[in-house]
Fold this sequence. Notes:
Layout (H helix, E strand, L loop, with lengths): L8 E7 L3 E7 L4 E3 L8 E3 L10 E8 L1 H11 L4 E8 L2 H12 L2 E2 L3 E4 L5 E8 L2 E7 L12 E7 L6 H15 L4 E4 L3 H5 L2 H8 L4 E5 H8 L6 H9 L5 E5 L5 E4 L4 E4 L12 H14 L4 H16 L11 H10 L6 E2 L4
Amino acid sequence: xxxxxxxxxxxxxxxxxxxxxxxxxxxxxxxxxxxxxxxxxxxxxxxxxxxxxxxxxxxxxxxxxxxxxxxxxxxxxxxxxxxxxxxxxxxxxxxxxxxxxxxxxxxxxxxxxxxxxxxxxxxxxxxxxxxxxxxxxxxxxxxxxxxxxxxxxxxxxxxxxxxxxxxxxxxxxxxxxxxxxxxxxxxxxxxxxxxxxxxxxxxxxxxxxxxxxxxxxxxxxxxxxxxxxxxxxxxxxxxxxxxxxxxxxxxxxxxxxxxxxxxxxxxxxxxxxxxxxxxxxxxxxxxxxxxxxxxxxxxxxxxxxxxxxxxxxxxxxxxxxxxxxxxxxxxxxxxx
Length: 336
């Protein structure tokens, strides 16, 4: 599909780290949960050699990479700012971006540190991830024109400085909209540290547990969590809740959508896929309800594959997934 915009303007520039993922498909394990079914742990025999059923290496992943490639697959013009190691994995990442029609001019090579690595344990359709992020010093480029930036997972002590740079960029480019999907280190900054960014966030993506953690609330109530972010300045809040579905609030109405039917192979990247589908739909001028369907469609397709990239949809595939689930529609959420 042809790109929608001219080469001097992006639809989205994703900002965040890129990782090399190694997936290990396991069957020699067990899961133990508390009596209430929560706080589950995957268990292996201590000091033993554990067999792996299948190994899969996937370069150029991570929240920013997944989002940029997802947006590009849907026919939009996407770029990515990311820092990778000056190594084989970093070179491969840049190549993967180019192969997927993501503009890689802002890919930066760290001469002193390697590319990030994640080991993903895939057991019974759920994943447990061991993440190693290299310390990074970010230097946000002077981007060409873009409609949106999508800020997401970044590394360690560099996060605060990156946030400062993003705030400075938005101050200079007030017409650029901000989509924010905080990663682990960004959530670790704490609510006070995130408030300046949240006040400028047009579109916030979080799951339910992340929402509780950032706000410091014990409640699981959807409405209270979403209103907590609106009070901080967030315009539109998208909350995913795994197999329970997704919620979107504009501060006045909360909409709910059940998950689509589809094969469950592995869950890595489903949240990123939802975000890419949702934001792409908005850029195409679609309604919030249609954007939720696009998010669902993309997420469902990725769920049927190993890794965060393999199932990402093109527009025709999106239409097919939505049509196959035509009986699942967006509802107004009336609960707490």
